[in-house]
Structure formats: structure tokens, C-alpha cells
Amino acid sequence: MSNRDITYLTDVSLLTCVVQTGLRDEVLKAARNAGAATGAISHSARGIGVRERLGLLGVAVETQKDVISILVSTEQTDLVFDTIYKAAGLDTPGRGFIYVTPLEKVSTYLPESVRERIEKSG
Amino acid sequence: MADNYMRFGDFQRQLMAGRNEASLNDLVIPPERDAEGRLKPCVPPRIKLTGAETMRLLQPYVSVRFMEQVKAVVPLGLYLALFQILFLRQLVEDSWIITAGLFAVIAGLMFFMEGLKLGLMPFGAIIGSNLPKKSPLPLVLFITMLLGIGVTFAEPAIGALKAAGQNVSVERAPYLYALLNDWSDVLVLVVGACVGLAAVIGTLRFLYGWSLKPLIYVSMFPVLAMTVYAAFDPEMQKIIGLAWDCGAVTTGPVTVPLVLSLGIGIAAAAGKGDSGLSGFGIVTLASLFPILGVLLLSFYVSWTVTPAEIIETARIAATATQTAVLPWYERSPGVEIVLGVRAILPLVLFLYFVFKVVLKEELVNQGEIIYGVALTIIGMCIFNLGLTYGLSKLGGNAGGLVPMAFMEVSGMPKSPIYVYAVGLTLALAFAWFLGFGATLAEPALNALGITTERLTNGVFRKKTLINAVSIGVGCGIAIGLAKLIFDLPLAWLLLPGYLLALVLTFFSSEEFVNVAWDSAGVTTGPITVPLVLAMGLGFGNATHAIEGFGILCMASIGPIITVMITGLWSRYKAGKQALAATETAPFGHEQEATSLI
């Protein structure tokens, strides 16, 4: 049975967190604990910029970064944002940064049970 | 919906006390324009950190790297110390010096590895990717060869060989003494040249896609033949252990990544992108060829000097050192520092030369590379100090005390502590667990395990490999110890072992052959090698064996056999399962992006 309808999910924001490699699992765990249960991806990247501006101290900043993108509901955004900020220790120099992007709409496969819930409430 | 509706976000915002907002617009430097209104390139100023901020920046940087080495060194050190205290009822002699020495090993390796990453690896990566594109193949291979010599000198474990040489008795094994003392530089050079040759052949192998099996057959034949020949000569017999151990010493944290990056670069430039197997083989060949080289060198030495001459020179040298005060650079700690500089500097200069003259590249991040090279040299010097005062001493002590468990050792009133059979079992169990534990903790093995799992599509699990290799090393070290206890001729242990390995090679698939032969090389890191070497020599002295070498090479053959047997067994099992067609296909590649659902 295939349903050709598309359900748009609205009120979604994208949290993107750039941290040193090795912190990825901590970030994901913090996000999950704060209720961001689905839609996380991570990729590896190289950071550039701050190393050069720190001079020799720059060697302490790992260039290898993990970029973690997590989809969260707009209502969760601040909670997840704060939790990740603290869990990844982003208040320490050289650890990384995090930002929020508002998203217009998101679509994906929704399980039967979830679709029923939407139909009932809508 | 209900009327008293409150957005969760609003609720959150209520809790947002202590959150400040600042506009990035206020933080950036507005670009300046010149007289004609064009933008001047903006030069961002250096970020200034306060002392406390610098500390917070450096603290995780240092502690992560420090803990990495602590994890490798401390359990082994504790194991040896506890075994002495609990089973042999002996306090560790000079425990403060050894503790300080082990600390030096930890600090030295920490500096060394970080320096290697910052100072030497960038050269390796750029040379590896650019040299094969710019230069003709013979020149590239020639540079690979020279690089092999350079990295061998820079390998931290090589210093352990020299340290081991001081404990060899010149009367009992004159040629061994000569090779490790008078000829030690030549010895390292020969080993280096063999590593270089292995790198060249390994690279050609990637390039033309040769199978590893014939290469193993072809190189094993002369090695085994010469070992047999040496075994019949009463003086040359004593060299076999050293020759085979040299193979295990060579493949460490400098050689493997630098030589591999060049080899893979060459293969990539030839359009043979890195297939799963391209990284393998060099390590295998680099542990086989030095055996041949060292045996040849010892034959050469035996033709040029007689044992009597060596003993005479050694006696003169011994009396000379007693009378004359050595200059600072020949005494500890001066000698360790000189050795450290001498090990690293030639390699750095060579890499720099290739970089500037052959590639005509400019160094980016000069400051960082200089910092890295300096760290490498400092790390090597500290590591050498730690080697002398920590690892070698600890290993030597432990090795000297373990025989107490089952036999009478002169100067030890309470020995033997246990009944012969119990003590012997205890000593062998000690060796087995030492090998097993040290291998289990080896980080290089973990990396090999991941590669293997990917290569075999998950049939051969990472854990299976690590266990197989660790059991192999444990058995190898226990057999090596047994060789010392019963004074078994090493050749008659090596020959059946390697013949069995060759037979297994014949029946195994290409992947397992690659993994198995390489696993022998990766297990011997900069901590295990000195510890096991020193332990063997101390043990050998206590049991009055002629020489204490040969344990390391037994630790190399062990995993080759266990891994291939495990591989054959898992293939047999997989075949049976396929016949029964009960199991679905195992999971495939590890995914790049991890999804969390």
C-alpha cells in the first residue's frame, strides 16, 4: 500500500554543530537526551581560519572537524541548542561552534502511527 | 485545541536568563578603501588570549595526548611490577628511577607522536601526492628507497637494539656483540636499506597489482635457507635471534605511515586508486627483508673478523672506558640526546631536500612544521632517556627475576620459590598474558581490525582479528620464553612455524594473506619492543642462555598462523552456512554518514 500524498512538516529548524573530531558522539548523545530523536547526520570536514590567527597556539586547535546537523522542532530548538552547547564545551576556546537555521518545510517517510496521529489532531 | 495554549519555545525563553545577544556586525573589522575607492585586502589581527584562556585551550590538547600514552604504558608497567611483587615476592628495584623513566617514555612518546603529525606527516602527504606526478618512476623509487633508510633511523624502537647490545656478553656470543656494538650503525643502515627495498617492491606491487603470495614465497625461500645454513655454524647460530628480531623492530609509528603515504601516492598517480588492499604488503616485506640483510651482514662480519679479535677489542675498549672519563656526549643522558637528534635530523633534512629541490614546493605553515620537527626531536630524546631508565630497566629486571619462580638464580637466596612445574607454568603464563595484554592495547591493531572488517565485508570481525592476533602474540612470546628456558635452537622453532605459515598462505585467500602477514608487523610498537627485548635479555642472563633474542620473532610468527587459521575457519564456516542457506548476507560497508534514528 503506497500513499502518494506528501506530508509537509513545518516548524522545523536545523541545528548545525561544528566540533573537533571525537566530540561527535557526545553531541549526539546530548541532542538525544534533550529530545532530538531523529534526523541527525554527521560528516567530516577541515576547519580553517582560527589556527592561523592564533599563531603557534593554533596547533592546539584540531583542524579535523565533525559537522553534525540535527533536525529539531522549533519548540525544541533552544533546549537542544543549550544542551549541545554545554555538552560539547563550546565555551572553551578552540572547541567549535553551533548555529540554527530556520527551515521552510521537511518531508520524509512517516510511519503509519504518526500519520494517524496527524490526521486525528488535524 | 485548548485555549490556554503556550508555545514551549516561549516557556523556554522565560528560562533564558543569562543569555546575551550581540550582533556580529559590531565585531567585524570594516574593510578599508584606498584613494580610488577600491577595497584594501583586510588583514585580520592576531587573536590575543589571556593566560587563563591559553590554559583552557592547551589543557585538553595536552591531556588527550598524554592519556593516550598513559593508557599504553601504565597497564604494562603495573602488570610487570605486580607480577614481581605478588608472585615473585620481590620489590621492584630502583622503583623511583623506573617510574621516572616510564614517565619519560610517556612524555617522550606524546611529544614524538604530536611532532610526527605536525612536522613530518605534512611532508609525507605532499611528497606522496606530488612527487609521482612530477618525477619519472625510477627517481621516485630511488627516493622511496632513501626514505626507507631515513625512517628506520628515526624509528624509536631501533634505540632499543643498541641498548640491548650493552647486555650481550662478548665471550659467549662474540659476533652478536660485534654486530650490536662496533657494527651497530652499519646494522641499522642495512636494516634501513632492506626497509627501503621493501618499500620499493611494495610500491611496484601496488602499481602492477601483483599478488602478495608469490612475493612471500620468493622472499621466504632465501631467508629460511640462510637461517638453516646459519644454524649449522656454531658461531652464526647466535645471530639468528637478532636477525629475526630486527624484522619485528623495523615497522613502527614512523615507517608505516610515511612509507605508505608515498606508496599509495605512487599508485594513485598511476591511476590505480587505492583499492582495499593497496596499503598492505609493504609492512610484510619490511619485516622479512631485514632478516635477510642482517644475516648477510653477519656472514660478512664473520669473514672479516674472528671471534678472538672481537673479544680482544672489547677488552681494550672496556679498560679504556674504565680509565678515561667519557666526554659528555658519550655519557647518559648526553648520549641519549645526541642519539635522538641524530635519528631525526637526517630524515627531516632529506624530506626538506626532496621538497625544495625535487618538488620545488614552498612550505606553507613554516612555523608549525618547525614546531613539529622540534617536538619530534625533543620527544625522541626524552623517549631515549625513558628507554634507558624505564623500559629497558623494568624489562630487564622482570626478565631477570622471572626464572626465580622455577630455578635457582645466583644471588637470590629464596629461589626457587615454587615447585619446578608450578613455577614454569607461572613463568609461561606470565609471558603469555604479557603478550596478549600488550597486543590487545596496541592502537595500530585496532586500525587494522577496522580495515579488515571492511575488506571482508564484515565476515571477519574487528574483535575476531584483535583476539586472533593477541592470542598469537601471547603464544609466540610464551614459546620464545620456553626457547630461552630449555635452550632450544631458534632455527628449529622458526622453520616449522614459517613452513606452516607458507602452507596456510597457499590455502588462504589473498585478503587473509595480506592481513595475516601484516598483523605480524603492526603488533610490535615502541613500547612492546624495548620491553620484550630487555625482558628476553634479562631472562637469558639469569638462565645462562647464550643470548636473549628470538622472543620478538616468535611473537611475529604467532599471529600470522593464528590469523590465517581463523580466516580459513571462518571461510569454512561461511561456506557451510551458505550451503545451508540459513543466514542472510552480513552487513556491508560502514556508512560515511551515521544516521541516528
Structure description:
The complex is a heterodimer of chains A (122) and B (597). Chain A is elongated, with a radius of gyration of 18 Å. Chain A is 29% helix and 28% strand. The model of chain A has no long low-confidence stretch (mean pLDDT 86). Chain A is built from four helices and four strands, in the order E-H-E-H-E-H-E-H. Chain A has a single domain, classed as Alpha-Beta Plaits, CATH 3.30.70. With 122 residues, chain A is an alpha+beta fold. The longest helix of chain A has 11 residues, at 77-87. By secondary structure, chain B is mainly α. Chain B has one domain (64-318, 329-574). In chain B, 71% of the residues lie in helices and 0% in strands. Chain B contains 21 helices and no strands. Chain B has helices spanning 8-14, 51-86, 95-134, 137-154, 158-165, 174-180, 184-208, 212-231, 237-250, 255-269, 282-304, 307-323, 334-358, 366-401, 420-440, 443-455, 462-486, 490-507, 510-522, 528-542, 551-580. The longest helix of chain B is centred in the N-terminal third of the chain and has 40 residues, at 95-134. Chain B starts with 7 loop residues before the first helix and ends in a 17-residue tail after the last helix. Mean pLDDT of chain B is 80; it is low at 583-597. Chain A binds chain B through residues 22, 28, 32, 37-43, 50, 53-61, 74-79, 92-94, and chain B through 7-9, 12-13, 16, 44-47, 49, 53-54, 56-58, 60-61, 64, 118, 367-368, 371, 592-597.
Layout of strands and helices, then pairs:
The complex is a heterodimer of chains A (122) and B (597).
Chain A lengths: L11 E9 L3 H10 L6 E7 L3 H4 L10 E10 L3 H11 L8 E8 L8 H10 L1
Antiparallel strand pairs in A: 1-3, 1-4, 2-3
Helix pairs in contact in A: 1-3
Chain B lengths: L7 H7 L36 H36 L8 H40 L2 H18 L3 H8 L8 H7 L3 H25 L3 H20 L5 H14 L4 H15 L12 H23 L2 H17 L10 H25 L7 H36 L18 H21 L2 H13 L6 H25 L3 H18 L2 H13 L5 H15 L8 H30 L17
Write out the strand line-up for the largest beta sheet of chain A, numbering strands in chain order.
Answer: 2-3-1-4
Domains of chain B (count): 1
- Would you tell me which CATH topology of chain A applies? Alpha-Beta Plaits
The helix/strand series of chain B, from N terminus to C terminus, equals HHHHHHHHHHHHHHHHHHHHH
What is the H/E order of chain A?
A: EHEHEHEH
Nearest-integer average pLDDT of chain A: 86
Radius of gyration over C-alpha positions of chain B, nearest whole angstrom: 27 Å
Classified by CATH, the class of chain A is: Alpha Beta
**Strands of chain B, total number:** 0
Strand content of chain B: under 5%
Supply Rg of chain A.
18 Å
**Largest sheet report of chain A:** 4 strands, antiparallel
The percentage of residues in β strands of chain A lies in: 25-35%
